[in-house]
Amino acid sequence: MSRKVGIVGVGQSAFVRTYPGSIRELVFESFREAMKDSGIARTDIDATVVCSAPEYDKQRSPAGVIAEYLGLNPQPTFYAETLCSSSSTGLRLAYSLVASGLHDVVMVIGFQIMSQLTSVESQERMGRGADILWESPFGTMMPAYYAMHARAHMAKYGTTPEDLALIRVKAATYGQLNPLAVYRKPVTLDQIMDPSSFLGAPVAVPLRGGDCCANADGSSCLIVASEEKARALAKKPVWIKGIGAASAPVNLAGRDRLYGLAAAEEAARQAYKMAGITAADIDVAEVHDCFTIAELMAYENLGFAKPGEGRELIRSKETYKEGRIPVNVDGGLLSKGHPIGATGGSQVRTIVLQLRGEAGEIQVKDPVFGLVHNIGGVGLYGNVTILGLE
Amino acid sequence: MAKNELDTRFTEFGTVSFAAVTRVNDFIGHLENGKLMGTRCVKCGKTFFPPRAQCCECLSAEIEWFEVAGEGKLVGYSTLQYAPTGFTEEVPYTIALVDYGDYKVFGRIDASVPEADLAVGMTLKAAVSRTSNGRLTYVFKRA
Questions:
Q1: Which residues pair with A80 in a beta bridge?
Q2: Residue A338 a catalytic site member
Q3: Are B88 and B133 found together in one domain?
Q4: What is the pTM of this model?
């Protein structure tokens, strides 16, 4: 019988265009918040899992330098990577380390410094997260892969570019309220629908500038603990109720559909089953809106809407804070920013704060269950985590 | 080819190639002969595109080549107005996924097909071609 696992500390750095420091210093920012949040001592941490997507900065094997800088020697430390869902994978590892009884307290650190690369270099790195033999030689990049999904979704269900724009308008509504977000300006529907504006300019048709998340530098930190430790440490422990993960073929040629992400659907199925609840029980969610179409597909893959009806959720504002299922009320990847390895941890932090009732201006009314959907690559790695009170 | 020399023909594939050596480098030879080819497991008959040298179904490493012929249906596509390092001089270009039934093929739409003429579900056929920098590739044309 595996042990119950709680989250006792959460932290996030500000997500910024350019962090004026090194990865170890950037990680310290979220580490400090998580340590203060949990109130534990460094010596209580039994192991650290360090997560990022490789090749954005020069440091190889970053776990070592980060553990040293945070004073976490001689405890074990190691690196976990699943592109944009690296820190959700780190959380999965931490969960199993604690649930198995091997460790009592494990820290999950996610980080990314993207600003050392130009935008086109960054697109090339991300493109190489796909199939370098059979896809990358055609000049692929993340916005284009997701644009292919948008095109397929539009053809199958009649989703429109305006539906997608509404998702960005929502993200910007909440990005303005998040002091840690990289993009804090409002976005109007007219701006995205105007091809002559920066937000409306086509990037990979049908996706426009405003449909794409912002690259950012940032870090996140989670502290995971056994039930006994969590009850002793936290005023209001938040429990990992369900944790699902799945994969899909890298090359789109291996996929059965482009209008949804099978790995997300499978991860959600596992997480709901483990938690013993359904989509209707979720009170607040963080989904991986690296592009607007990704959030729309998430509505359907997570069961918040029936296949093809995701657009109704955003049209009726049901995913706003006051709606039936609030989604990404911290600004999401679109406005909060997407420092790849830090994203999953930041999503979990938002849900933990919501469940504790500490989310401030974006607090949803009395949530009991929250969900995190974090995708690596183009639907390559699917991760769904359900958190709850008791 | 000298005994210890590696077959690096894969460097000739696409606008920018990110790999030199695979066990299916004959793919390049077939492109040179004007044929787009996938592989089939001789033992269990499973077809693979992109081609692979080993079969995960039956663990056999005995494969044969087959030609990607006939028509496929367009599953999804996107025209890039912005491109990664190495491809910026080619924009706009359109990437696409085409379903042939037993397998799907990822590639580019030929420049002869205007973006406005494309629609999910339309039929296309693959043809061997050259990139703008003169390297081997394949494209989808109107069927």
A1: A51
A2: yes
A3: yes
A4: 0.97
